[in-house]
């Protein structure tokens, strides 16, 4: 079981969020009759590596600052359990960064057709790596000053969806900003559940997430706003662009969201927050899969 500490530190369940961005961008590209399966595969690999980098960097930064020690029920990471040393984790971060660069360059070289496109995606890739690392690492990590939600919206929404779309189509469409933001909002909702769960330990360690700044009650209403906004934007794009009954497939899971919101407003302990987090990840992935299917069938 020597690999188990690394597996739980990689947090494979969170890969669903990065997959959602890439799948949505590629579904939109397929809708525009421009699709290459190799670009899709390279995009998925690169996004997965970036997500793992973010997870490892998050563990490293929180371990150094001690903000993962008070919440044993919520965090079962290799470094927190003493199964991975900080030096080993630092080495894993370096290896992961190297793999991100190799995978990202392979994707860009294969997908980009001119120097301008190449340089733009080199910049976006570099920013993605920097953002993954500096969320909790550094003198002023932005995850500790309430900017985590904005970062997730940008990278899981705009960069992930629009970037993967552009790599396929080689052009931009203003209309895809709507589903891109929608996807980003669902990813922010996952982060928000995580922050609601960790609110007490984050406050004690001066990690000023939005939930810490606004309080638990407002954090729950903020979560509701994120989900409503996501569904409204998804619906607007479907109504004005897809024009088929299939575009509404994602609405079939609305009852599951109602149950999720009901459970959210009732929860008041870490133990009840953990299943809510898993549930939100599954809901975000299922929503995007149904939306992608609706786009493809349209």
Q: How much is the radius of gyration in Å?
A: 19 Å
Overall mean confidence score, pLDDT? 90
Low-confidence stretches: none
Helix content: over 70%
The proportion of residues in beta strands is under 5%
Describe it.
Helix 2 runs parallel beside helix 6. This protein has twelve helices and no strands. The chain is mainly α and 298 residues long. Helix content is 74%, strand content 0%. It has one domain. The protein is globular, with a radius of gyration of 19 Å.
Summary tags:
298 residues, mainly alpha
SSE arrangement:
Blueprint: H1 4-10, H2 15-31, H3 37-65, H4 86-111, H5 115-134, H6 148-169, H7 177-197, H8 199-204, H9 210-214, H10 216-242, H11 254-266, H12 270-297
Helix pairs in contact: 2-3, 2-6, 2-7, 2-12, 3-4, 3-5, 3-6, 4-5, 5-6, 6-7, 7-10, 7-12, 10-11, 11-12
Quick description:
The chain has helices spanning 4-10, 15-31, 37-65, 86-111, 115-134, 148-169, 177-197, 199-204, 210-214, 216-242, 254-266, 270-297.
